[in-house]
Design goal:
- By secondary structure, this protein is of the alpha/beta class.
- It has helices at residues 18-33, 52-65, 79-91, 102-114, 130-138, 186-195, 211-220, 251-256, 261-270, 283-288, 305-312; strands at residues 5-8, 37-42, 71-74, 95-98, 144-147, 153-158, 162-167, 175-177, 200-204, 227-231, 234-236, 300-302.
- The chain is 37% helix and 17% strand.
- The protein has a three-stranded parallel β-sheet.
- The protein binds glutamic acid.
- Glutamic acid binds next to loops.
Length: 314
């Protein structure tokens, strides 16, 4: 196998917390162990919510953890590549213009549910003629653009979760481009994974549902899909998910509270896996303990008090 190229892809819309550190570390340590490349990709296509000061803070947090990236990429500097990919998909009929409003979609959805049908987009826009489209645009409507899925089963081997499959006929064609021309996360992510030759996509299991669509996009853009690993998410002892609002579990707060980075890294990597959670001072040793097949599928619960205990053992 050639050396891995992986990416950690946060949106710079807030501070990183210990759950984000798990994703960053699993990527960085997997690459480190095999002499691969660790890329930090800022998913900052949302120009309103992304802030340069958060991007700076994220780089500082990664440096503090001991995993500075080998390469930094900003999606906000790459719009021309997304435009090119969208045009390519349009030219082969895989990206089509839709004019329905939210209200119209909601109405159809409720009607389908009332009839006991799955609430899947009915592809009505595919049968619009050029004339229909001109009329809609004359009314002042602007199109949003959907990716036309192939109705087949997509299968993949997840390094954490094993064999996965999705029957794509059960999915709505996803919107890739909004009415105002901005991109949702899906297309830029795949375009960049191709451009950066990402070999392994290692991310939280909240993204499992995006995988089948992304595999179809890789293929539609003429690329082989990467290998996927979806890890379980960290939760508090009471089972609560870590949101950016949980400020005291941000990496900057943990650092300010006097914790060693190795205490945070040991917990972030080892909790919710087959390994006992213990203080590992050296990142190469911690990297040797990463085994995707031994990450649990249950949430990775931790108690904040464990951080102080680990710190005391360093
Ligand atoms: N920006 C996405 C996120 O932070 C990246 C997901 C991915 O790794 O594909 O959730």
């Amino acid at each position: 196998m050639s050396t891995p190229r992986v990416r950690f892809a946060p949106s710079p819309t807030g501070r990183l917390h210990i759950g984000n550190a798990r994703t960053a570390l699993l990527n960085a340590l997997f690459a480190r162990r095999a002499g691969g490349t660790f890329i930090l990709r800022f998913d900052d296509t949302d120009l309103e919510r992304s802030r340069p000061e958060y991007a700076t803070a994220i780089e500082e947090d990664l440096a503090w953890l001991g995993i500075p990236p080998d390469l930094v990429v900003r999606q906000s500097e790459r719009f021309s590549f997304y435009d090119e990919a969208a045009d390519r998909l349009r030219s082969v009929g895989r990206l089509y213009a839709c004019y329905e409003t939210q209200e119209e979609l909601e109405f159809r959805r409720r009607r389908q549910l009332a009839r006991g049908l799955p609430p899947i987009y009915d592809r009505a826009a595919l049968s619009l003629s050029d004339d229909d489209r001109r009329k809609l645009e004359a009314e002042g409507r602007r199109p949003h653009w959907r990716f036309k899925l192939d109705h087949r089963t997509i299968e993949w081997q997840d390094m954490v979760r094993g064999a996965g499959h999705v029957e794509c006929a059960s999915l709505s064609d996803p919107v890739l481009v909004r009415e105002d021309g901005t991109y949702l996360y899906t297309l830029p992510s795949v375009v960049d994974d191709i451009a950066l030759a990402v070999s392994h996509v290692i991310r939280g299991e909240d993204h499992v549902t995006n995988t089948a669509v992304q595999i179809q996009l890789f293929e539609a853009l003429g690329a082989a899909p990467p290998i996927f690993a979806h890890h379980n998410l960290l939760t508090t002892a009471s089972g609560e998910g870590l949101s950016k609002r949980l400020g005291h579990l941000s990496l900057s707060s943990l650092r300010e509270s006097g914790l060693e980075p190795a205490a945070v890294a040991s917990l972030a990597v080892l909790v919710g896996s087959a390994e006992a959670v213990r203080a590992v001072a050296d990142l190469d040793q911690l990297a040797a303990l990463v085994d995707f097949a031994h990450i649990s599928r249950a949430p990775a619960r931790f108690d904040e008090a464990e951080l102080d205990q680990l710190n005391a053992h360093l």
